[in-house]
Design a protein that fits this description.
The protein is of the alpha/beta class and about 270 residues long. It has helices at about 1-30, 35-40, 65-75, 90-100, 115, 165-175, 190-200, 210-215, 245-255, 260-270, and strands spanning about 45-50, 55-60, 60-65, 80-85, 105-110, 120-130, 130-135, 155-160, 180-185, 205-210, 220-225, 230-240. Strands 4-1-5-12-6 form a five-stranded mixed sheet. A three-stranded antiparallel sheet has the order 10-7-11.
Length: about 270
């Protein structure tokens, strides 16, 4: 009887050890950024992007957008199977890079010193500017749109959660010597915030100029002529812990940028 109890105890201990070992193996595979060797071995590159009217969207029964077209061109440069995931939150996308859920962040974000502390950026993809979204005079009870940065003092500007525009707004606040309030919205994208401006739910938002120019076609109420920042470089990003992947990705991007299809896509969405 005593021997049977000992055997049972040994069996339980072994089973627990095996379960813990299996768990640690799974965690080690899923909770860390993947490097190129691991990606190549598995044969799949996971790319995350966001749904917006410039980068990635559905037009009729087809998918379109600048980042979508770049991803399609990227497929011609590698034998890897590319899986695309949609994620509206930049914070969630970055977390996905850190945990190995995603390998590449393919949304055009400004290259800033703040983001460089956690991300590695690829070759430049495009150029863009941040603009103030507000209502035109005829849709704003006769009040003229703000043209001078000095008039942003004490105003509240809405941006998506963890938007790269936050750093620029803070710098602008220092430049004018007054407070500009920033309201980060956890639920809405820049495009949706522009819609809230048009419907008078909020007064001001900050958005990429290229996105603003597209949504203004369906929102005649909004004005986006006031710049918040200078022209900035945009790029894709990966985890800083995947330097070999960065080298490979840059090689592919250079090839893509030398294709005539890249110029056509850039002219279509950015000019």
């Amino acid at each position: 009887m005593l021997m049977n109890k000992k055997k049972a105890l040994v069996f339980v201990v072994v089973a627990v050890v095996l379960l813990i070992t299996a768990y640690l193996i799974i965690v080690s595979k899923t909770d860390a950024p993947r490097e190129f060797a691991q990606i190549q071995k598995e044969g799949v590159l996971n790319i995350v992007t966001d749904y917006n009217p410039v980068g990635y969207y559905v037009s009729g029964d087809t998918i379109a957008g600048f980042n979508y077209e770049l991803i399609e061109l990227l497929k011609t440069c590698t034998s890897l199977r590319i899986e695309v995931f949609l994620e509206s939150s930049l914070d969630n996308s970055i977390h996905g890079l850190e945990t190995g859920k995603y390998d590449v962040l393919a949304r055009n974000i400004p290259i800033t010193s703040e983001l460089r502390s956690t991300l590695s950026f690829t070759e430049p993809i495009a150029q863009n500017r941040q603009v103030l979204i507000q209502r035109k005079k005829e849709f704003n009870d006769g009040v003229e749109p703000i043209k001078s940065h000095l008039n942003l003092a004490k105003k509240t500007l809405y941006v998506p959660l963890n938007s790269p525009a936050i750093l620029r707004i803070r710098n602008l606040s220092h430049e004018i010597g007054d407070t500009i309030f920033i309201k980060e919205d956890e639920s809405y994208s820049a495009e949706q915030l522009a819609m809230l401006v048009a419907s008078k739910d909020i007064d001001y938002a900050v958005c990429d100029e290229k996105v603003a120019s597209v949504i203004a076609k369906s929102l005649p109420e909004i004005d986006y002529s006031t710049l918040i920042g200078f022209t900035h470089i945009e790029a894709w990003a990966i985890s800083e812990k995947s330097p070999i992947l960065l080298d490979s990705l840059n090689i592919w991007i250079r090839k893509v940028k030398n294709m005539p299809e890249y110029d056509k896509a850039y002219q279509k969405y950015y000019k």
